[in-house]
C-alpha cells in the first residue's frame, strides 16, 4: 500500500501546481485584455475570459505539481528507508576486517623480517651497552596497526655510564649507517630516533625507527626513560610501557583507534598517530561503559574536535609534553572543521559514513 506521506505530498503538489497555473493564466488573460484595449472590469472579464484555456492550464499544473510531489516524496522515502536499512556497526565491522594487518601477507612478512634484522644486529653490535632486549613499540605492539602500516618502532635501553644521550644517538646512527646504508636502504638522523628506510618489493618505503633510551631513577619500578631530542637539543622523559599499555585489555579502545586511523588515511588528514593513540582512551574513559562501534567512533571524533579548540593534551608518559604542539593553529582549525562537518553530515544521513571511508583502499 502506498505510503501515506507520499499520498499527502502528491496531493499537496497537485494543489499547489494547479493553483499556481490557474493564477498565472488569470494574470495572462488580464494582460491580454489590456493589450487588446479592453478595460479590465468584472463584466469584460466574464465576457472574454477563456474558461477552457484556464482549465487546461490548471490541469497541466495539477499534473506537473502532483508528479513533482510524488517523485520528491518517493525519493525522500527511499533515502529514509535506505538510511534505516544501513547498519552503521556492520559497516564499521567490515572496515575493521579490511584494514586489519595481515601477518601472513608477503609485504608484512618482509617488513617484520627487516625489523628483526635491525634488532638482531644492534643487540649484538652494542651488546655491552644495552639492558635487556629491544622493546617493540608503536601500533604493531599495541595491536592497533592497520594494513597500510609502513613504519615500525623499536626502543633500546642503554646502561648508565655509556655516554651522554647525544653521544648515544650519534653512536646508534653511525652503527646503523655503517651496516645498512647502501642501495635499497638509507639511514638518517631524526628527532628522537634513527630511521632505517628500506625499499619494499612494492616500491614503497619501510621505515624502522630506532629510539635510544636510558632508564631514569627507579627505572626498574617505573619504566621511565630518557630520550634525546635532536631538534631541541635536550633530554625528554617518556615511558614506552605506559604507551603500550593504553589499549591493552580494551578491545573497544583498539577498534576505535584503528577506525580513527583508517578515517585519517582515507581522507589524508594531518592527524598525528600519537595523538590518536592517546585521545581515544581518554575519550572512551570519559564516556564510560560499553557502546557500539559507531557510537564510540562518533564520540572520539567529537572529543578530538573539542580538544582541537586550543586545548592541551598531555602525554601520559610526560606531563610536560603537549601532544597538540606538533600541530599549527591552521592545521588544528582545518582538522576541527573537517571533523565537525563530517559529524554533522553523518548525523543527518547515516549512510554518509561510507563516504567518510570511501578512499581507504
Q: Strand pairing plus helix content: what structural class?
A: alpha+beta
The total of beta strands comes to 9
- What is the H/E order? HHHHHEHEHEEEHEEHHHHEEHH
Helix content: 55-70%
CATH fold-type name of the largest domain:
Beta Polymerase, domain 2
Q: How many structural domains does the protein architecture include? A: 3
State which percent range the strand residues make up: 5-15%
Main β-sheet, in a few words? 7 strands, mixed
Overall mean pLDDT: 84
Number of helices: 14
At the first level of CATH, the class of the largest domain is Alpha Beta
Low-confidence stretches: none
Backbone CA Rg: 33 Å
- The CATH architecture name of the largest domain reads 2-Layer Sandwich
N- to C-terminal separation? 42 Å
Write down the overall geometry.
Answer: elongated
Account of the 3D structure:
- With 361 residues, the chain is an alpha+beta fold.
- The chain folds into three domains: 4-85, no CATH class; 106-244, 2-Layer Sandwich (Beta Polymerase, domain 2); 247-356, Poly(a)-polymerase, middle domain.
- It has helices at residues 4-35, 42-48, 51-85, 88-99, 106-125, 138-142, 165-180, 219-222, 240-245, 251-267, 273-287, 293-307, 329-348, 352-356; strands spanning 135-137, 151-158, 185-189, 194-199, 205-215, 225-229, 234-238, 314-315, 318-322.
- The strands form two sheets. Strands 1, 2, 3, 4, 5, 6 and 7 form a seven-stranded mixed beta sheet that branches.
- Helix 10 crosses helix 12 (293-307) and helix 11 packs across helix 12.
- It is elongated, with a radius of gyration of 33 Å.
Amino acid at each position: 500500500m502506498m505510503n501515506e506521506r507520499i499520498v499527502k505530498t502528491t496531493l499537496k503538489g497537485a494543489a499547489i501546481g494547479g493553483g499556481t497555473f490557474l493564477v498565472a493564466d488569470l494574470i495572462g488573460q488580464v494582460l491580454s485584455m489590456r493589450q487588446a484595449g479592453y478595460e479590465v472590469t468584472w463584466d469584460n472579464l466574464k465576457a472574454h475570459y477563456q474558461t477552457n484555456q484556464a482549465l487546461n492550464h490548471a490541469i497541466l499544473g495539477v499534473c506537473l505539481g502532483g508528479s513533482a510531489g510524488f517523485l520528491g516524496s518517493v525519493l525522500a522515502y527511499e533515502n529514509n528507508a535506505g538510511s534505516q536499512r544501513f547498519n552503521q556497526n556492520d559497516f564499521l565491522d567490515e572496515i575493521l576486517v579490511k584494514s586489519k594487518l595481515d601477518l601472513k601477507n608477503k609485504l608484512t612478512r618482509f617488513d617484520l623480517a627487516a625489523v628483526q634484522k635491525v634488532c638482531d644486529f644492534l643487540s649484538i653490535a652494542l651488546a655491552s651497552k644495552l639492558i635487556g632486549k629491544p622493546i617493540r613499540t608503536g601500533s604493531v605492539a599495541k595491536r592497533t596497526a592497520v594494513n597500510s602500516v609502513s613504519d615500525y618502532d623499536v626502543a633500546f635501553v642503554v646502561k648508565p655510564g655509556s655516554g651522554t644521550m647525544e653521544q648515544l644517538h650519534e653512536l646508534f646512527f653511525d652503527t646503523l649507517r655503517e651496516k645498512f646504508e647502501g642501495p635499497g636502504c638509507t639511514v638518517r638522523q631524526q628527532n628522537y630516533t634513527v630511521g632505517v628506510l628500506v625499499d619494499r618489493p612494492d616500491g614503497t618505503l619501510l621505515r624502522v625507527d630506532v629510539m635510544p633510551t636510558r632508564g631514569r631513577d627507579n627505572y626498574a619500578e617505573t619504566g621511565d626513560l630518557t630520550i634525546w631530542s635532536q631538534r631541541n637539543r635536550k633530554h625528554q622523559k617518556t615511558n614506552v610501557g605506559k604507551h603500550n599499555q593504553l589499549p591493552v585489555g580494551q578491545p573497544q579502545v583498539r577498534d576505535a583507534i584503528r577506525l580513527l586511523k583508517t578515517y585519517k588515511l582515507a581522507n589524508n588528514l594531518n592527524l598525528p598517530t600519537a595523538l590518536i593513540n592517546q585521545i581515544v582512551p581518554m575519550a572512551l574513559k570519559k564516556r564510560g561503559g560499553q557502546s557500539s562501534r559507531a557510537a564510540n567512533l562518533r564520540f572520539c571524533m567529537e572529543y578530538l574536535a573539542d580538544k582541537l579548540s586550543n586545548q592541551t593534551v598531555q602525554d601520559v608518559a610526560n606531563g610536560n609534553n603537549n601532544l597538540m604542539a606538533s600541530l599549527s593553529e591552521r592545521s588544528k582549525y582545518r582538522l576541527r572543521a573537517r571533523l565537525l562537518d563530517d559529524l554533522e553530515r553523518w548525523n543527518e544521513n547515516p549512510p554518509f559514513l561510507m563516504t567518510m571511508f570511501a578512499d581507504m583502499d
